[in-house]
Amino acid sequence: MLTQLSRPFFLHRQRQIARYAAEAEQIQREVLARLVRQAAGTVFGRDHGFAGIQSYEDFAARVPVGDYETHKELIDRMRHGAPDILWPGRCQWFAKSSGTTNDRSKYIPVTQQGLQRLHYKGGTDAVALYLQNRRDARIFDGRSLILGGSFDAVQDAPESHSGDLSAVLIQNINPVVNIMRTPSKDIALLSDFEEKRERIARAALRQDVRTLSGVPSWMMAVVKRVMELGGTDNLADIWPNLEVFWHGGVAFTPYREQYKALVRSPRMQYMETYNASEGFFGLQSDPDDLALLLMLDYDCFYEFIDMDGGVEPIPLWQVEPGRNYAMLITTSCGLWRYQIGDTVRFTQTKPYKFFISGRTKCFINAFGEELMVDNAEQGLLEACQATGLQVKDYTAAPVFMNAEGKCRHQWLVEFTDGEVSAEQTADFAVRLDDALRRINSDYDAKRYHDITLQHLEVIAAPSGTFDAWLKAHGKLGGQHKVPRLSNERKIIEDILASIS
User: Fold this and answer.
1) Where does 144-300 have alpha helices with state H?
2) Of 490, 487, 470, residue with least CA distance to 479
3) Which one of 132-141, 147-156, 465-474 scores highest in mean pLDDT?
4) Global pTM?
């Protein structure tokens, strides 16, 4: 009955989200005005004349587009205890993310206001929208299995704390939520993923788990271990009341059919979330529509740069459906016109819904083919459907022109089906190549008669290849993942060397 009793609590929020369709520009202008007003007395605010900003147009004229490198010096000052730098007050928490050209790691500020109005708000709204769509939901009548990352025990800046975003969220979570979640905090924050997986599986095996939250690849490793311990090939035998998996971090396309095979229950639903170290930006609001709803009234103001020739950022209310945009954010965590590195493609504008189409630095365009991650995911899905194979992990890179002018894409793919024959791998490569030609006209043009780009190559990786590579780099578990596409060969060569 707890779920039913909680519904009125979420009704007001559901009505607020309904405003997105008609009032997007007004909502976003109000968000920007509030952020600028609050930060006017900070070092960044004084340097950029926030006190004189009266409109978005003033803001765009005074504040340059930035990224981690342009913010890094000020973030370092925040990490060492300096107050009022990028946001009012002191910031004690930083989400540790993958590194940049000059640093092994990035440290994204997570302010107290940002925690509540940029991160936790997304989790609350995920529940609100799920309850709106699911009248028979019973999620609060059992436990939620929330899979998180690790917390840094050793800090190079004693005045602050850092870890995976999920670990930061767990450290600061409302104690009431802890009553309903599993595993316990001490298990959730373990750094050794293999130990964590074993302890989570044993702790959750006999509990009434109703919901899952986490990265699909790591969650799959946990639930498979649960099924091994439970002696079944159907997770619904162990958790018969399981009803939803809120997933994010990596595209769900390669995993969707695998989860359907593992959880054979008509009640089970899958809802995508777009939560990053920098903030919580999107939610799947309709189980029948895979596009994400852009969350407009959080402490985040959005801008976009057209990837097809755009130079200057534009605000949300000027975007057009069907185009690829690099996303910029301004938030209460002190990120100002910050290029997050993701690209999105809108499907509609009332309300604004979108797909994550890739990364600004995660694509292959070595020969003018402009292959983005969403192309790759759709191509893999079609190849899996045609061959019956399932993909666990993959990465791809170009093989550059040799003396004869021959070049191609090389895909390193780990299948879930154990050992895959050379014939199966070759068939998968044909299906993938055909799918990419249908999906991407630029790829198809370069593939014409094999004149510029030859048929792609697929290498079947031994089982455990990607996990072993991540473990060797200290990135097993949490929110870590192997980059899917790269315009150069450093990553794929490193992984190939590890299995040679």
Assistant:
1) 165-172, 175-180, 185-188, 193-204, 216-230, 235-238, 256-262
2) 470
3) 132-141
4) 0.78
